[in-house]
Write a structure and sequence with these properties.
globular, 19% strand, alpha/beta, 416 residues
Length: 416
């Protein structure tokens, strides 16, 4: 067998044969997941096919997050129907409205290096943070995977990204994602799997990796995976209490394309309306008045995001509305115990946990006509967070927190 990239190694195992770029394969899946917004359609496909069953109950993960708690009668009805499915099929890995966002739960509790994960949501790529080949699919494909334990894939081309050095001050995973989007644009990685090598694993922790992997779908990548390393081992041991096994590319693996990012030379980046790849330095849009800041989502709702926000907001008051949503109960609990939640609350933020809420313009703070939002979430196309007449800028937690304090897009140094 020739030397393989991480993508080729994972998909070879999953398909039971040696694969190369462009092969159409049938792959065994390790986890199949869905949430309240898409789960209704997945179950509907099963019902229409007369096959309301799953290949392995222990490999199905369901979480309520998009419309949780339900903001309207229809959402409550859908969740009730999914609860019935969970009870009838006896799904053990079910998380109701009080636990967290699906993608965060997969990272915290389930994803492993070398797995194939499919879920009925595009941001499934988040699990690539642990070195899993994780891909979002439509309801029909996810229903088929849940029933059969298999899915079909086209083996993508592997693109190597190397992160060198220590991140400059305030630089996190969001800035790396935005740099890739700004340098290559949103369509470039279509049909590619991005494999990220971190030269100094501890310099780019799992929180940052999850953010970058989350936005792999914004790059139209088939997957965005961090090559498992000592940070992967540390995270799984800390969060789950056991040792995981690393699955890595062969040392002689050949990559058609390679790109290096020097973390120490980066500066905070922002995606301006109405595209994720309309990337500018934060300084270029500095001073833009804003109405609301959103800190959270499956993109940036982790502990490090709230540590950064609390550090900047401590002892200050927000001038714009600010909504802060840790991505899970675990993240909220830890942020609460460390005092971050109280700091944000004292600064004037509205805080809850475990809901997608405003990210998709669902509830808990949608954008009104003419309003300008600065969000740490993943998308800023027209109407994403509410009104078609609103504008959304995307940033990391440091710029978001500083901007909430100033009432305009700002750098952390502006409010220190």
């Amino acid at each position: 067998m020739s030397s393989q990239t991480l993508t080729e190694k994972i998909l070879s195992r999953a398909s039971g044969k040696t694969v190369t770029e462009g092969d159409v394969i049938e792959a065994a899946v390790d986890i199949v997941a869905f949430h309240d917004l898409t789960g209704y359609h997945v179950i509907e496909v099963m019902e229409k096919a007369g096959m309301v069953k799953v290949f392995d109950k222990g490999k199905i993960v369901i979480a309520f997050d998009h419309l949780a708690p339900p903001p309207d009668v229809r959402s409550a009805e859908i969740q009730g129907n999914i609860r019935k499915f969970v009870k009838d099929v006896k799904i053990p890995n079910f998380y109701d409205i009080n636990v967290g966002i699906l993608h965060e739960l997969l990272v915290e509790k389930y994803a492993q290096p070398g797995q194939v994960i499919v879920a009925a949501d595009s941001h499934t790529t988040t699990s690539g943070a642990l070195g899993a080949f994780a891909q979002g699919m439509g309801a029909s494909d996810v229903a088929a995977a849940a029933i059969t334990g298999k899915t079909w894939l086209v083996v993508p081309s592997s693109f190597k990204v190397t992160l060198e050095g220590e991140p400059a001050k305030w630089i996190t995973g969001k800035d790396v994602a935005l740099k890739l989007l700004g340098d290559f644009k949103a369509e470039y990685f279509n049909g590619k799997s991005i494999e990220v090598f971190v030269k100094n694993p501890s310099a780019f922790p799992m929180d940052y990796r999850a953010t970058t992997s989350n936005m792999g779908i914004e790059m139209n990548a088939d997957a965005l995976m961090f090559v498992p390393d000592s940070e992967t081992l540390r995270y799984v041991k800390q969060m789950r209490g056991y040792e995981t096994k690393l699955v890595t590319p062969d040392s002689e693996a050949k990559y058609p394309e390679e790109y290096t990012i020097e973390l120490n030379k980066m500066e905070p980046l922002v995606a301006a309306p109405y595209s994720v790849d309309n990337v500018k330095t934060a300084g270029e849009v500095q001073g833009t008045p804003i109405d609301q800041v959103y800190i959270g989502s499956c993109t940036n709702g982790r502990l490090s995001d709230f540590e950064i926000a609390a550090r900047i907001m401590k002892g200050k008051k927000v001038k714009s509305r600010c909504i802060a949503i840790p991505a899970s109960y675990e993240m909220f609990k830890e942020a609460l115990e460390r005092g971050y939640i109280n700091t944000l609350f004292e600064a004037g933020c509205i805080v809850t946990y475990g809901t997608c809420g405003p990210c998709l313009g669902g509830h808990f703070g949608v954008a009104g006509p003419g309003e300008v939002i600065l969000s740490t979430s993943s998308r800023n196309f027209r109407g994403r967070m509410g009104s078609n007449e609103s504008k959304t800028y995307l940033s990391g937690p440091a710029v978001a927190a500083a901007s909430a304090i100033a009432g305009k897009i700002s750098l952390p140094g502006d409010v220190e």
